Amino acid sequence: MSHQHHHDSHHHHSVESANINRAFWIGIMLNTAFVIIEFIAGFMYNSLALLSDAGHNLSDVASLGLSLFAFKLAKAKSTERFTYGYHKGTILASLVNAVILLIAVGSIGWEAIQRFQHPEETKGTVISIVAAIGIVINAASALLFFRNKEKDLNIKGAYLHLATDALVSLGVVIAGILITYTGIKWIDPLISLLIMAVVIYGTWSLLIESLKLSLDAVPEQIQLDKIKETAVKIAGIKSIEHIHIWAMSTTKIAMTAHVIVDEKTSMKQIQSIKKELKHQLEHEGIQHVTIETVSSNADKDDDPC
């Protein structure tokens, strides 16, 4: 039974990863096309809202590419030098992603402030039409990642990015309509500043989470107390100590621990205790577990970790 289950989940996994892979490629292609359209329109009709949105979308293409790269990295085999493979690369990609976004936002803000001092003439209708295309492209791309966004920080990053962009494009459409009907020039830079606020809000949590993971913090979804309770409930385990839990990648979690057992416990019982503990931990989302068993009458030598 367990073998069958394993096989199914493996098959399911490869189908899913093919889907995610495809989602990244479609997202990259759609967004690249849109960036080109936006840049041309922004230059021709002198709109900061369009140009800043194009710049922002370009950072999207970069981040989607980065996430795709991270996704591929996670699949790379481990080597003698990199015994974990390149799993941590996914966390670094996620971190770089957040930083790129914040830099992109800063440059939009700077330009917007300049524009408030020297408002320029822009063409409202063109802005609205181009940005409306953006809503469709970004929303469609975001939907590709919606299903898997909680499974991986990079996919979450891609989803946040694209969903934010759909909102941004909506803002630009509204700006275009307002400019057309009121002729007020500073609406264009005002919308770019609103775009910034939205992006910073979404990116901040991504930045903090990636930073924590790169410092080997226990991932958000794992509660240490709950892990201890789970372990102690298993027959034969007296206590569990020296627990270390960290993220190997944006999807894989590892753990090491010392399990204290009675000195009368046989080798065979120890094997089954370990098996049971690993099984329980898998339900908690921890896939890579290394356990050392210590019998309770051994001299309690505290190890330095």
Structure report:
The chain is mostly helical. The chain folds into 2 domains: 2-214, Up-down Bundle (Alpha-lytic protease prodomain-like), CATH 1.20.1510.10; 224-295, 2-Layer Sandwich (Alpha-Beta Plaits), CATH 3.30.70.1350. It has 8 helices and 3 strands; from the N terminus they run H-H-H-H-H-H-H-E-E-H-E. It has helices spanning 2-45, 48-75, 88-117, 124-146, 153-182, 187-214, 224-233, 267-283; strands at residues 237-247, 253-261, 288-295. The chain has a 3-stranded mixed β-sheet, covered by helices on one side. Strand 2, helix 8 and strand 3 (288-295) form a beta-alpha-beta unit. Helix 1 (2-45) runs antiparallel to helix 2 (48-75) and helix 1 packs antiparallel against helix 4. The longest helix has 44 residues, at 2-45. The chain is elongated. The model is unreliable at 1-9 (pLDDT under 50).
What is this structure, in a nutshell?
With about 300 residues, the protein is mostly helical.
Assign an overall shape.
Answer: elongated
Strand content: 5-15%
Classified in CATH, the superfamily of the largest domain is: Cation efflux protein transmembrane domain
Radius of gyration: 25 Å
User: What is the helix tally?
Assistant: 8
CA distance, first residue to last residue = 39 Å
Fill in the CATH topology of the largest domain: Alpha-lytic protease prodomain-like
Strand order of the largest sheet: 1-2-3
Residues in helices, as a percent range: 55-70%
> Residue-averaged pLDDT, rounded?
79
Domain module tally: 2
